[in-house]
Structures are given as C-alpha cells and as structure tokens.
Amino acid sequence: MTPNTVSRDRLRANAADCPLCGRQIPEPTERLVAFGPVESVTADTADAVECTACGGVSFFRPPPEETG
User: pTM for the complete prediction?
Assistant: First the structure.
C-alpha cells in the first residue's frame, strides 16, 4: 500500500506527484488545502494538496523536527 503523503520539498520544486494515481500535480501550489484557520495557505501552512487528475487529496509529510 502506498502512503498517501507528498514531500513539501517536492511541492516547493513544483514536482509533486500524486501517490494515488501517479500523475504529476500541475501547479501544486495552486491546489493547496488547509484544515483549520490560517492567514494564508502556502507550502508551509498547508496540510494537503489536491490532485486535479484523480480528485484525491494527499497530505504532507511532517518536517523532520516534528517527527521526534
């Protein structure tokens, strides 16, 4: 089973692939999703990204300092 996560570094590089369908997410920074209040949705504040090809939502891997 493929984990349903995307690397924030790949997102920032505009090279995020959807782990659900395998396609590259076009303009991933335009497809960000935040669950909860944030001032603006950015690569640093988003919780997930939506794939335009399959409609799935993939979550971001936590930064290394949060995996403790």
Answer: 0.80
The string of pLDDT tens digits covering residues 16-59 is 999 999 999 999 999 999 988 989 999 889 999 999 999 999 99
> Which of 4, 1, 29, 7 lies closest to 19, judged by CA?
4
List, in order, residues 6 or more apart from 4 with CB less than 8 Å away. 19, 20, 56, 58, 59
d(C-alpha 41, C-alpha 22), whole Å:
24
Enclosing domain of residue 48:
5-66
How many structural domains comprise the chain?
1
Average pLDDT of span 6-13:
90
Among 2, 5, 8, 1, residue whose Cα is nearest residue 64: 8
